[in-house]
């Protein structure tokens, strides 16, 4: 299992477009993918769940990956967070 | 129910409304209550059926959203489009779907209720956030939830509509009306609406009686009540007495005998007493009308309303689907003229996508919508042009207001023809193109577009409403919607005159063409081609065959001296009484004598 804390760095935060992209990325992999924030646990492959996350600029989210392809999934998804959802 | 109810004989009640479509029917009432589209906590027995309904509602919602995305990304803006994309993803969300389906199985409750409850969890979670951005997101989820619930309830409700009932509703959309007609509806009764509402027009097309504008029909009439719809007098009789029933059964017999007379009339041509041949075409909303059109021996179809496919299929039809539909119509008409009008959406007609406009009648309608969605427009143009190889087809453009729109469309048509040539697909090289005259601006522009087109078709409903600035569906001002307003009469006269000077054929396809009161006036003004709903053909033919153009012209001269709608109505009524005959009056005179 991989667990990492990431920070939201783009101005608009985790809004609809990155939420959709995130789910699409996660769905490519077989491993489980969860996001933790403010005591909430969200399934990262569920768009309605991810849309429920209130994550503005500066907030932190814990990502959790578990499964055979967890390394690849973590690398791609963490990269997407670090690049500020390609909005920097 | 108390045990005395059996002894409560219901009292006969007579309701007065607007006679919107001829005919008399006696039958049981079905109350169409739009409140059925709500998520109510109901226990269910058939779980598999419920799951199937849920999945169907997801697919349906998805195709609706896809339609919005496909059609209008440039109109609604990238940001909005993104929301729709996210909404589509929600409909595919495996976790959401699984949890809803599991709950339906375990709790055995109606899918609409579970959807409501499950999705509210998410919106509640978001709503606790004070961020306005997040609030909007809650709204988006709310939207998609409501769409699923609406589709769920609609499907479930549809499967439960009883057959052969008289439909009683506050109001009916065109798609409701069509849906009920497929359940062998016997007639329509509505609280709202006037003579030109779509319920009225469709009821006439389907040859079913309709009484509209009754105000409280849905309160006065109970489900399964026996009612009589009298589409001649605009009367609905609830729980009729034995006596009333007998009287109406006699009336129905007389109506039948008049229908026999019409049968004979169908074999005769439409020709005035002084020998002028008049073209009598039919308007086609649904294919089911073709048999009636042939029964009355129509000279052809003056108007095919193609937008009906949106109501029927609720998806955008492909070129092939459209081609097949047009081909079917053309082949059934066996060489007679078929005028196909391209999609006329917007205004009060179904728009294939949900766009809210402040004032749809002045908004994205007809050709404006089509030129804004060229790929779809081209699909339809290709389908019509291809169909032209199989009969006498003409192409008609709705809601045109500028010369540019005509030119732009003709360029598109030429492009389609070039494409078809390169694909070795044959079509009628001389396919005629015409324009609807529905907006006063076009009356002024006739001369300028004459070299681009070969015929005109007048849509009187819209022309009158735009000329007089009266919303025909607004009951407060509907009295000002006057077919015989002097400006309407002069405008029609101008159209016929300018069209003749420019060698353009004119057909009148609006409601006015099917109004027997207007027939002598229109003949006198110079109209020689009428396109009416199929059930009106014999009524109009009967008038034509009993008047002379010369008398009609004298009538017009008299009318031109009059200033008010009421005076003109009076003189027209008088003309009919003395020269031809008012068929409706005859029906009831005979009955009342007995």
Verbal overview:
The complex is a heterodimer of chains A (88) and B (594). Chain A has 88 residues and is α+β, with helices and mostly antiparallel strands. Chain A has one domain (2-86): HPr-like (Histidine-containing Protein, Chain: A, 2-Layer Sandwich), CATH 3.30.1340. Chain A is 35% helix and 26% strand. Chain A has three helices and four strands. Chain A has helices at 16-27, 47-52, 70-82, and strands at 2-7, 32-37, 40-43, 60-66. In chain A, a hairpin with a 2-residue loop joins strand 2 (32-37) and strand 3 (40-43). With 594 residues, chain B is α/β, with parallel strands linked by helices. Chain B folds into three domains: 10-33 and 161-255, 3-Layer(bba) Sandwich (Glucose Oxidase, domain 1); 47-158, Enzyme I, Chain A, domain 2, CATH 1.10.274.10; 256-593, TIM Barrel (Alpha-Beta Barrel). Chain B is built from 23 helices and 16 strands. In chain B, helix 3 (94-107) packs across helix 4 (111-127), helix 4 packs antiparallel against helix 5 (132-158) and helix 9 (242-266) packs across helix 20 (537-545). Chain A binds chain B through residues 13, 15-17, 19-20, 23, 40, 43, 45-49, 51-52, 54, 56, and chain B through 82-83, 85-86, 89-90, 92-96, 119, 122, 125-126, 129, 131, 133-134, 137, 140-141.
């Amino acid at each position: 299992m991989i667990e990492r804390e990431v920070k939201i760095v783009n101005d608009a935060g985790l809004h609809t477009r990155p939420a959709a992209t995130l789910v699409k990325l996660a769905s490519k992999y077989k491993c489980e993918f969860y996001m933790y924030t403010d005591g909430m646990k969200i399934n990262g492959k569920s768009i309605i769940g991810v849309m429920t996350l209130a994550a503005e600029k500066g907030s932190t989210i814990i990502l959790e990956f578990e499964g055979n392809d967890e390394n690849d999934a973590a690398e791609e998804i963490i990269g997407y967070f670090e690049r500020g959802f390609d909005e920097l | 129910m108390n045990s005395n109810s059996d002894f409560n004989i219901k009292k006969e009640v007579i309701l007065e409304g607007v006679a919107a479509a001829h005919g008399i029917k006696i039958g049981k009432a079905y109350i169409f209550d739009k409140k059925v589209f709500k998520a109510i906590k109901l226990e269910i027995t058939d779980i598999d059926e419920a799951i199937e309904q849920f999945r169907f509602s997801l697919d349906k919602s998805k195709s609706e959203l896809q339609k919005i995305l496909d059609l209008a990304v440039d109109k609604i803006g990238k940001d909005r489009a993104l929301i729709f994309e996210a909404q589509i993803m929600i409909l595919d969300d495996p976790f959401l779907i699984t949890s809803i389906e599991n709950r339906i199985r375990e709790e055995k409750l109606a899918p609409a209720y579970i959807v409501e409850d499950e999705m509210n969890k998410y919106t509640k979670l978001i709503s606790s956030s004070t961020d306005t951005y997040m609030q909007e997101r809650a709204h988006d989820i709310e939207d998609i939830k409501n769409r699923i619930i609406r589709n769920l309830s609609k499907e479930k409700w549809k499967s439960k509509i009883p057959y052969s009932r008289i439909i009683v509703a506050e109001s009916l959309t065109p798609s409701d009306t069509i849906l009920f007609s497929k359940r062998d509806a016997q007639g329509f009764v509505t609280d709202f609406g006037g003579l030109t509402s779509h319920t009225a027009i469709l009821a006439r097309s389907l040859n079913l009686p309709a009484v509209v504008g009754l105000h409280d029909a849905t309160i006065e009439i109970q489900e399964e009540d026996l009612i009589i719809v009298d589409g001649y007098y605009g009367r609905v009789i609830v729980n009729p007495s034995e006596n009333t029933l007998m009287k109406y059964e006699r009336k129905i017999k007389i109506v039948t005998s008049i229908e026999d007379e019409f049968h004979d009339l169908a074999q005769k041509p439409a020709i005035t007493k002084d020998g002028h041949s008049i073209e009598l075409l039919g308007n086609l909303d649904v294919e089911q009308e073709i048999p009636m059109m042939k029964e009355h021996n129509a000279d052809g179809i003056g108007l095919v309303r193609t937008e009906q496919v949106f109501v029927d299929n609720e998806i955008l039809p492909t070129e092939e689907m459209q081609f097949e539909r047009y081909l079917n119509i053309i082949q059934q008409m066996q060489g007679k003229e078929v005028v196909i009008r391209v999609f006329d959406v917007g205004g009060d007609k179904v728009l294939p996508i949900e766009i809210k406009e402040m004032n749809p009648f002045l908004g994205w309608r007809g050709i404006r919508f089509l030129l804004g969605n060229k790929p779809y427009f081209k699909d339809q143009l290709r389908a019509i042009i291809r169909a032209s190889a199989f009969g006498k087809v003409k192409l008609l453009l709705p809601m045109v207001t500028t010369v540019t729109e005509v030119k732009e469309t003709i360029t598109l048509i030429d492009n389609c023809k070039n494409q078809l040539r390169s694909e070795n697909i044959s079509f009628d090289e001389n396919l005629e193109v015409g324009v609807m005259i529905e907006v006063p601006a076009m009356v002024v522009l006739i001369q300028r577009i004459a070299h681009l087109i070969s015929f005109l078709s007048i849509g009187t409903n819209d022309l009158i409403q735009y000329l007089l600035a009266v919303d025909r569906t607004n009951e407060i001002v509907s009295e000002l919607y006057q077919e015989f307003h002097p400006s309407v009469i002069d405008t029609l006269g101008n159209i016929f005159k300018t069209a003749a000077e420019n060698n353009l054929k004119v057909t009148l396809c609006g409601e006015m063409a099917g109004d027997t009161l207007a027939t002598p006036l229109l003949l006198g003004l110079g109209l020689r081609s009428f396109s009416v709903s199929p059930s009106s053909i014999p009524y109009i033919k009967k008038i034509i065959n009993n008047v002379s153009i010369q008398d009609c012209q004298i009538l017009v001269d008299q009318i031109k001296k009059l200033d008010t709608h009421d005076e003109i109505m009076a003189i027209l009524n008088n003309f009919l009484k003395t020269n031809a005959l008012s068929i409706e009056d005859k029906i009831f005179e005979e009955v009342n004598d007995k």
